[in-house]
């Protein structure tokens, strides 16, 4: 497996080639536009000449620097005006003559000053945790596609609401969570298999990613495997282990899907609670989906710990028939 440093280098290389690609795109576009409108090529030459001429005058110190700069600005303004008019007359925007960055914020460098840009953080998370599968899934599973017809509209005596009414309620709560994201809420989505828990997690992930947040989406199995790997890291990987840990903390939202199905040990359980606790202190949100109800969670992870940690979570219970089974038989 590639180390974190290798992955990081690979990503920076991707940024390099992205910039090269964008620059050559611009060259081609310009060649095409200048072929049709040669005056624009002249303007570009004049602009750069103006720049070199000004630089030379400043170096020679012949006249006052302030005056030179004024002249430069004035000259540039006239040329820009002319260029704008020509472009407008041919229904083109000035952006056609500029590089079209994938991320205008960092101009495809991955950095804003010394800070990592959000686009770099996302790429890192995607690669480190191989989240490409999640990206595919959320194309299909999102708020627009949530299907309430899969749930029974018959009121449940035990729950005092129909499975459908309940699903609608949970759906609205998840929407609210996305809208007020960052206000300290954590969600524990639980209930039987195939009732829409993972679907709802995907809805949340998709909307927050689109809003520009960093989301780390892991199944409990993936998370625990990662933690075990770190536990047995070699001493010279100390730095790397710390950085993995940082990533777990850094994401604005951590989604742990399917908790309870994996094999958990005392080590993984205590690590899980450590992560939740660290994130709580850093005021970072966690969404957990699990097949286990509160009582089962308590028996798996001890009452004291469970009530202390899961008490921080808003509980969202799904109930009803397994909608995947119903879906299958309807086909
Ligand atoms: Zn960026």
Question: What would a concise description of this structure say?
Answer:
With 331 residues, the chain is of the alpha/beta class. Helix content is 60%, strand content 10%.
Mean pLDDT: 86
Count of the domains: 2
How many H/I helical runs?
Answer: 13
Structural class computed from helices and strand pairing: alpha/beta
Classify the beta-strand content into a percent band: 5-15%
What's the β-strand tally? Answer: 9
Ligands bound, unique: zinc ion
The rough form would be described as: elongated
Q: So what's the oligomer here?
A: single chain
Describe the structure.
By secondary structure, the protein is an alpha/beta fold. It starts with a helix and ends with a helix. Helix 1 (4-36) packs across helix 4 (118-128). It has 13 helices and 9 strands. It has 2 domains: 4-111; 129-330, Rossmann fold, CATH 3.40.50.300. The protein has helices at 4-36, 38-60, 65-89, 118-128, 132-140, 163-179, 197-210, 220-231, 238-250, 266-281, 294-301, 303-310, 323-330; strands at 111-112, 115-116, 155-156, 161-162, 187-190, 215-219, 253-259, 285-290, 314-317. Strands 6-7-8-5-9 form a 5-stranded parallel beta sheet, with helices on both faces. Bound molecules: zinc ion. The site of zinc ion has 5 residues, from loops.
């Amino acid at each position: 497996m590639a180390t974190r440093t290798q992955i990081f280098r690979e990503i920076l290389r991707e940024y390099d080639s992205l910039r090269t690609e964008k620059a050559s795109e611009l060259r081609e576009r310009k060649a095409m536009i200048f072929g049709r409108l040669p005056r624009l090529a002249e303007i570009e030459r004049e602009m750069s000449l103006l720049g070199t001429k000004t630089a030379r005058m400043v170096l020679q110190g012949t006249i006052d620097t302030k005056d030179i700069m004024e002249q430069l600005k004035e000259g540039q303004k006239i040329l820009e005006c002319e260029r704008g008019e020509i472009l407008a007359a041919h229904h083109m925007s000035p952006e056609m003559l500029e590089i079209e960055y994938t991320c205008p914020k960092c101009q495809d460098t991955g950095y804003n000053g010394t800070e990592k840009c959000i686009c770099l953080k996302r790429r890192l998370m995607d690669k480190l945790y191989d989240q490409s599968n999640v990206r595919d899934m959320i194309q299909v599973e999102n708020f627009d596609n949530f299907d309430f017809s899969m749930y029974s509209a018959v009121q449940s005596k035990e729950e005092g609401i129909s499975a459908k009414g309940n699903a609608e309620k949970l759906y609205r709560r998840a929407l609210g969570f996305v809208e007020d994201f960052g206000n300290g809420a954590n969600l524990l989505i639980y209930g039987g298999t195939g009732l829409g828990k993972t679907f709802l997690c995907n809805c949340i992930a998709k909307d927050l990613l689109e809003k520009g947040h960093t989301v780390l989406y892991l199944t409990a199995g993936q998370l625990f495997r990662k933690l075990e790997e770190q536990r047995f890291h070699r001493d010279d990987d100390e730095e790397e282990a710390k950085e993995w840990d940082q990533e777990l903390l850094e994401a604005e939202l951590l989604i742990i899907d399917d908790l309870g199905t994996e094999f958990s040990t005392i080590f993984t359980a205590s690590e899980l609670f450590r992560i939740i606790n660290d994130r709580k202190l850093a005021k970072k949100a966690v969404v957990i989906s699990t097949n286990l109800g509160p009582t089962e969670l308590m028996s798996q992870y001890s009452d004291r710990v469970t009530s202390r940690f899961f008490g921080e979570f808003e509980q969202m219970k799904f109930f009803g028939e397994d909608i995947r089974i119903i879906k299958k038989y309807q086909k």
